[in-house]
Amino acid sequence: MDSLDMKILSRLLNNCRESDRQIGKELGMSGGAVSARIRKLQKNGIIEKFSVKVEPPVLGYGVLYFVVSGEDTNEILEQVSLVGEPYIVVPCVGGITVCGITVKDGLEQKAELAKKLMKDVRVLSIFEAENSEFSSNLTKTDLEILEELIKDPRQKIDTIAKKTEMSTKTITRCIEKLNENEVIQFTLIYDPIKIENYIPHAVLAWIEKDLKKTLQTMNKTFSDSYLQIPFIAKNQIVLFLYSQSIFKMDELTQKVRSIKNVKSADLFIPKKISFYTRWLEKAITEFKKSPKLHLTYQTN
Fold it and tell me: Quick one: average pLDDT of 187-215?
């Protein structure tokens, strides 16, 4: 892995539908060279698959994040599934696992229920996700196209049009709409362990006040080290970074802690990142059966 590989990986993590040509233009290389590097990343097992990441609130679901002590993913999934459907599971170095669970309603009650029911793993933290302000007005057409993109988010527009029997104009307009929605992301699943010369890591920062202003400061300070765009969860900001050594990683973490309004910051080094789409597939199927033409949600 070199710096160009990491930049390509970062671009695809943030939007895997961006063309090889466009990525090459922004990195000062040809589209063919980008394609060759992507194939190499896939062959080496660094890129496992391309994926669509949908924040559950866009479909009316809440999310509870669990930070638990333990690395047995099957056991952890069995425990957290008592309160909802798995959304994301990230086992980390040091025996800590972070997992997100989709919940239809009663988030606070489900969080309390989880504390009582989860007996075989030690729960270090449970917090509710809270996205920044967004509104969603998805149609059945949007969801039908999204359902197809879940299978392969890098599909060509002509291919999707043939499969869905819709016009290329409709497909193009829909994908542009999905791209503009900040809680729908065309991304990929990668294997952190197979990345050589760099260490992907995440810093979970707990913010006391002025979350948006603090995020702006972080963007100015750490953008050169971003692997993915930051994630906001209630009064937390999660920074996805990469470093060339454990010392640089520690330096970045300490720098996060020194930023104004940051109450504390915890470092996580993922060993595996898994997205689960069963909840998403079920939500789309249920809505397609509904007489409603639009799925509308709004948060503040």
Answer: 93
